[in-house]
Amino acid sequence: MFYDKVFKPPIFVCLLTFTFTLSSCGGGSSSDENNQAPPSSGDEGSDNKVIVSPSNLIAVANDKTVNLSWDNVNGASAYSLYYSQESFANLTGGIANYAALEGGILIEVITSNSYIVPDLTDGVTYYFVVTATNASGIESVASNEVFVEKINQLTPSEVVNLYHEYMKNHNDRPDLPIYTEQTQEMLKTSTVTSSQMDNIASNATLCNRDAESILNSLAVVRYDVSQRYYSPYFLVLEDGMWRIDLKSMSQIIRFNNANQWRFDINISNPFSFGFTDWQLDENGYPHAPS
């Protein structure tokens, strides 16, 4: 008889740190005045007052594109994206002088808190900042700067590593581009606590990644079969990018009262191709081949 718990991401997962496609300069701020949030006026975000900077700008590289997203700003009617091949820390005279940077480009009137930058070149480092503008045309100072160095499709393992990086930084946004669409919908009604995210980060060094398997548009990233506390990851190729499918994981993976994972053998598992060299017992627990 089992005491099973439904998979509740992201408590019992294990990931490795991955940093080369996402970096926040100085922990999201620097000595450059363009990266400092304005002082509180008691009425920030209104049409006639200063508007706060977008926060938590993140960048995920894909095949010749970069997916950018950031937190919504209260009172923002639009956003402007600045990017170049040179850090904005080198800019003098304010963000209006962006063209002075090598390859400086401005994209205006972005009406959502995400944007995909196309037609980038692999091997070139790109730097990005975002500003918010209110209905009166008042523009905020720049957000934190992020940069990417590798403009190609991330592997499933690299996406899993990036997920761990977000958890390490307590980024609990449900709309992260590394999530499948159905995962984003699920996370909108879920709560991930700081202690849960800390648990992921603290367990990172305990993982022994065993294999990465790909079958058409599905992928599995798994850990050593003896590490029953660290469940595998399921990923789906959506819009040309590998994305973590926590929704499917929540339907297929179960945990017992000792927090050891198993498969629900009563649920169809399209990711079973990643485990053909393992043996499952009658209760769905994996074992090394005898």
What does this structure look like?
Helix 1 (156-168) crosses helix 3. The protein is elongated and about 70 Å long. The chain is built from 4 helices and 16 strands. It has 2 domains: 5-17 and 155-287, no CATH class; 25-148, Immunoglobulins (Immunoglobulin-like). The chain has helices at 156-168, 181-187, 194-202, 246-252, and strands spanning 5-6, 58-61, 66-69, 78-84, 105-110, 114-117, 126-133, 146-148, 209-215, 218-223, 233-238, 241-244, 253-255, 261-263, 279-280, 286-287. Residues 10-46 have low confidence and may be disordered. A hairpin with a 5-residue loop joins strand 13 and strand 14 (261-263). By secondary structure, it is α+β, with helices and mostly antiparallel strands. The strands form 5 sheets. The protein has a 4-stranded antiparallel sheet with strand order 5-4-7-8, with no helix packed on it.
